[in-house]
Amino acid sequence: MCIRKGKRMVARILPFLSTEQAADILMATARNLPFLIKKDAQDEVLLCLLRPFSLVLYHLPSGTVTSLLQQLANLPQSATAPAPANLHLAAVLQNKFGLSLLYLVLSRGEELQNSSAATELMQDNQWTELMFMATRELLRIPEAALAKPVSTPSNLLSLFSRYVDQQKLNVLETKLQLVQGIR
């Protein structure tokens, strides 16, 4: 994944792998994303992985989606109190591929949260803690440093509304609209 051909090859073979194998590649990518972002700075080939990763993501169970968000945030499996500033997550938010992948994971997690099959996700409050941390980091990062995502899920603001008060939601909405170029 450190070279252009490797990223394109992974994008091509991902649909042919089992769900478990594809999930392992997705988790490894999330875990090593800041390093991959540095290697991809000139080429921006990581973007070719978004579509195959989104297809894999929609076949994953809720526990794996939670683990994926932990990997994106670079948290240990039993994180209860995140550090004041998360440099791993900040790097993800400052990259087009990273932010787009984060949005996909958040959107899928919220879909699972709202479904009847999400009892596992709701029981341990781990998803809620991760959402608070992601929201806090999104609010903390300056608008100029936030990347412009490839696409934005339609449920993006509604998924944050459950985790922040109205004032912070308005700030978040303004920031996300400015980044998307809606204004």
Structure overview:
This protein has 183 residues and is an all-alpha fold. It is built from 11 helices and no strands. Helix 2 (19-31) packs parallel to helix 5 and helix 4 (50-57) runs parallel beside helix 7. The longest helix is centred in the middle third of the chain and has 19 residues, at 96-114.
SSE diagram, text form:
Elements (H helix, E strand, L loop, with lengths): L3 H10 L5 H13 L1 H7 L10 H8 L4 H12 L13 H7 L2 H19 L4 H5 L2 H15 L15 H6 L4 H15 L3
Helix pairs in contact: 2-5, 4-7, 5-7, 5-9
Q: What proportion strand? A: under 5%
Mean pLDDT: 84
Basic shape: globular
The first-to-last residue Cα distance is 36 Å
**Using DSSP, what is the number of strands?**
0
Tell me about the biggest sheet? none
> Rg to the nearest angstrom?
16 Å
Structural class by SSE content: mainly alpha
Low-pLDDT stretches are 77-83
Count every helix, treating DSSP H or I runs of 4 or more residues as helices: 11
What is the element string, with H for helices and E for strands? HHHHHHHHHHH
Helix content: 55-70%
